[in-house]
Design goal:
Layout: H1 15-23, H2 29-33, E1 43-44, E2 60-74, E3 80-87, E4 92-98, H3 99-106, E5 113-122, E6 127-137, E7 147-148, H4 159-175, H5 183-188, H6 194-202, H7 207-238, H8 250-258, H9 265-278, E8 285-290, H10 296-309, E9 313-317, H11 321-335, E10 342-345, H12 351-363, E11 368-371, E12 385-391, H13 398-405, E13 413-418, H14 424-430, E14 435-439, E15 450-455, H15 459-471, E16 475-479, H16 494-503, E17 511-514, H17 520-531, E18 537-540, E19 553-558, H18 566-573, E20 584-589, H19 594-605, H20 609-626, H21 645-660, H22 664-676, H23 681-684
Parallel strand pairs: 4-6, 8-13, 8-14, 9-11, 9-12, 10-11, 12-13, 15-20, 16-18, 16-19, 17-18, 19-20
Antiparallel strand pairs: 1-7, 2-3, 2-5, 3-4, 5-6
Helix pairs in contact: 4-6, 6-7, 7-21, 7-22, 8-10, 9-10, 10-11, 14-21, 18-19, 18-20
Bound molecules: adenosine-5'-diphosphate (ADP) and magnesium ion.
Adenosine-5'-diphosphate (ADP) binds near residues 294, 298 and 578.
Amino acid sequence: MWWQEPVTFLKGIGPKKAAELAAVGIFTVGDLLEYYPRQEAYIDYGNLKKINELKMDGSRQVFRGTVYSVRNSFGAHGKRYTVVVVRDETAYASLYFFLHQSYSAQKLKPGTELLVMGRVRPGKNTRSVSEVSVQMLEHGEEQTPEIVPVYSLSGGLTQINMRKWMRQALALAEQELPESLPEAIVEKCHLPGRLQALKNIHFPTSWQALQEAKRRFIFEELFLLQCGLLSYRQQNHDQRQGIKHGMNGEKLQQVFANLPFHLTAQQQKAWEEISADMEKELPMHRILQGDVGSGKTVISALALSKAVENGYQGCIMAPTEILARQHFETLQEFLQPAGIRVALLVGGMRVKARRELLLNLELGLIDVLVGTHALLEEDVRFARLSLAVTDEQHRFGVEQRARLTNKSEQAPDVLVMTATPIPRTLALTVYGDLDISLMKGRPPGRKPVQTLCYNEAKRVEVYQGLLRQVQAGRQAYVVCPLIETSEALEARSAEKVYEELSKGVLRHVPCALLHGRLKPAEKEAIMADFAAGKIKVLVSTTVIEVGVNVPNATLMVIENAERFGLAQLHQLRGRVGRGSEQSYCVLLTGVDTPEALARLQVVRDSEDGFYLAEEDLKQRGVGQLFGLRQHGLPDLRIADIIRDTETIVEVRKLAQEELAKPDALEEIRRLVELQFGQRFAMIFNT
Ligand code: ADP
Ligand code: MG
């Protein structure tokens, strides 16, 4: 099939050109056709300026002119060049041709009509045009192509060559070209067919046709991506026999009665979605996205109770020991009064204690197991696991999730909780195999955290403020980007700040230094002392980033705040404002560029994690934050997850309908493979 042939299959492409094409990722004739022109970079010949209207700023412009004279000259080093003067009814322009271009330019005859593209600058008497490419118009020809593509190229590749090759490839496509979307979808969504769209994306017959072609390819890419994700889900999750939990009963009522608060409307909705999923035969695969402090823990407590009420076991896995311990305490408080037995499993436990715990787990004497990665180990066996919860998903990979669910014969329900709020459509892609529950905002009774941005010059005052908070009986965090001072990076290290504070302004105050290089037991002890109020100020790196809950902490100082992402700053800030007192977050920075300050002001002015995540995405790009590859997904060629929000929602629905049809899976898989090939590692390698 011609599209699988190497590019050398085309006339004019030898080994040298093939190597240059390979450098931009084009190997086959099919690759070439799918190398779409740069978006927004088509040349609009239909909207040409007159010569006297051309801007003389060195930018690339296009105009029409008639050849007036052709003259050869020699430059300083004896190199020949050709000057072709063209004119229209408004002015003259001199086109400069060098080297091999010079020869073809000499052949231009006065009176010839040309389309000219080049960089326009002021000349002696006329406008001067360099880096010229011209296209001859047949005498009297009005039918010039209006819209011409511009490709991203490197090395010796030229636009003219690319266009020539594209035309050859399109001629082959005219003969034979398979459709890459189900016919019914093409019809239903009024998309142009693949051939027509390919022709129009390279050589649009009109702007309208170009728009249609782009729409089709964006649709195609996103549709097949969703199909891939959903079929992954079908293959890997839905195939396994799930566990059907019963309706909520007495034990849950007991747990509810024991809660120190009522659920907010957002929590109620999330709980209903989870509860309904758990009552279904199909295994649940749901992600609960909730801003920091939105109250996710209690939701997991309810889901775990539901598992236990039905005679099963549940587990919850947290990324750090500190968090696991905290969950353990909270869950015990919520669940023990209802007679639910909660246990904690972390690394580094005594052999005997661990053995006893594992035995009890296997005997079904433990109802809910809380822990770290330690839960994943081979010898951790449940009697009858029906719900696996993971907290703060961005720290766990797809593969770890799978390891946890494999600890049960029947597929347990899976609930993933994340505090990294990402825009819904991005979540649909990154977590495309999961259903989504959202909780925005926070429970009532909390004052918003007041955020302040200060230049480092104010550090002394800020540290005085730190002391005042401590004297008022409160606690505080100081977060630094580094553990120890580094020669390569100019940023404050936790060690240095700790030295300064504990020997300086806080010399009479119990302080501690917390970072990832301490032994787990040391970290644990420090955290416990901080939570108990024995330590007043905790100087740390971002190890406290997720989930830690100390309501008496009312101040957070972040050093070198410019080094953190918006979403991360927001997460850190979430450690304070957990009690009823007014809390503060101080962003210290030595950088005073307007951009850096503007970024910090975005965090200062908003407490909406979803909004901040979106801003973060706009500023740093999807790739930076949520590289698709990092999630085992292919990169996108023409679609844009942020821009094409509506299309994503549309195609997801269509993909679900399509895959529900009998026998659709095989056909779709074939198309997905055609589109993404090896790049769809997550689907085809699992
Ligand atoms: P996160 O979503 O960040 O994990 P948590 O589950 O730690 O949030 O909850 C943050 C705090 O809010 C906890 O102290 C919790 O007890 C409290 N909380 C949760 N839900 C409610 C509610 N409906 N009303 C009042 N306080 C609540
Ligand atoms: Mg949490």
